[in-house]
């Protein structure tokens, strides 16, 4: 039964992350190329 609970928890975590990814994608969609470049430079 515990494996089943872990599976359900993992599925819910994946759904939560997908929702957050959609929110982030919607926000970044309006960014300029310069803003995107700045983000990428700060990541490395």
TrEMBL record:
The protein's name is Acetaldehyde dehydrogenase
């Amino acid at each position: 039964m515990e494996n089943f609970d872990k599976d359900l928890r993992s599925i819910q975590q994946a759904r939560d992350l997908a929702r957050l990814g959609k929110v982030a994608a919607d926000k970044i969609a309006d960014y300029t190329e310069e803003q995107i470049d700045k983000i990428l430079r700060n990541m490395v």
